[in-house]
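Ticket #480: bound-state structure for 2-acetamido-2-deoxy-beta-D-glucopyranose.
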Amino acid sequence: MAALRLVCLFVVLTIGLVHSLDIPKIKDVPLLVKTLKNLNRGPPHQVMTKRVNILEKWITQKLDNFDASNTQTYQMRYLVNDEFQTQGSPIFIYLGGEWEIEKSMVSAGHWYDMAEEHKGVLVYTEHRYYGQSVPTSSMSTDNLKYLNVKQALADVANFIETFKAENPQLANSKVILAGGSYSATMVVWFKRLYPDLIVGGWASSAPLLAKVDFTEYKEVVGQAFLQLGSQQCYDRIKNGIAELESMFANKRGAEAKAMLRLCDSFDDQNDLDLWTLFSSISNIFSGIAQYQSNNDIVYNCDYIMTFDDDATAIANFVYWGWGMGRCIDARYQGSVEYYLWGVENFDASRPWYYQTCNEYGWYQSSGSSNQPFGTKFPATLYINLCGDVFSSRYGNEQINVNAANTNAYFGGMEPGVENIYMTHGALDPWNPMGHGVEQGATIIANASHCADFSSIKPTDSEEMRASKEKLAGLVRQWLA
Ligand SMILES: *[C@@H]1O[C@H](CO)[C@@H](O)[C@H](O)[C@H]1NC(C)=O
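RESOLUTION: The complex was predicted; output attached.
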């Protein structure tokens, strides 16, 4: 994992996004937030093989797309790659999600290759409240009322109309969309709300169903370790975590704290602290499974199996995964303080957390017994955070109402859209919230989250290659 981190850091630095790396220097990121940031970091960047001239541009958007009397505006950023542009070029828009946009998605990979084939112009739009497209001076709960997917989709609709109006060459161009993870969800929902603005879209790993207690997620993480690792590895995770739980439950908390190198302030008599800890333990495994490729899981399982006993193995492994340090701050209150600090200090973790409370839930809990990560991180942990960080109105009942409203508005598993190609990795923990084969999606064996954005390449599995080719065929139909 250390090697993987270095590669990521290298990619980030080479494309010049040092901005987001500044945050840990300003304030130490508490354990749970750190592991969640890792899970919400956005689709993997593409490997750029040549120098591409990317234009950074801005468009004026309404702060509130649904209130004609509110005339406030903000600047939304987007990136353009016009190297193939000609009269009437189709427009290939990659949608940003809860992350900062970056050059590689419009400079390399399968989306780029298809744009080249069709002489398309490539665009990457930034989602309001993320990256540099921040509409309000602070992230107070009141200001965040302008942050929701309906506003973001209306921004995209306005973007398409404005972009065409500003580029007479493109006035009659066809538009197609792509997105990964949450921005894949946006592709599907955009087609539902604005069917005439695009001819088709590609949604890689799109969750469609809002669900507060997302118990299936950890089941698939477990399956990934079982299928790509081994039964021994799976058992070691399961038994090691069970052993740590039982130490805390049986007056051996001090010993467990020492094994996990937790700071003294950690209170093992406090459920919220314990839940924060066990959630952060499981999130190390989620982080590996969600973006695994090649032999990541084999490699990590080999390391886990080098220790003498299960609990020691898990304690050492997660300590390493957490980035080590003198002592580990796993207090619940640390997460609350960090998200509150985000009111005045821009950090994408706060707006995304807000969206989960307000629209989706998707709390990856220990609620299923069919997973190896124990029983100590109920969705209640995450629901409590909503209340403590944003407003006491976000209790269990309200968050369930919010998720139900999202499903009612967008159709949940039945979005009712045409000409949207949905792909999922069979071992992507998000896939239970999206379409399956019966609904027309393509499920790629062994693949993880957003794993299919790279160019067609010799190391692709047969299924991966077939899916990329199917998409290329659909794009030809849509643009014909
Ligand atoms: C999936 O991975 C397993 C373990 O590496 C391998 O045995 C299997 O052939 C793979 N399946 C496909 C369809 O690639």
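RESOLUTION NOTES: Residues 228, 445-446, 461, 463 surround 2-acetamido-2-deoxy-beta-D-glucopyranose (CB under 6 Å).
TICKET STATUS: resolved
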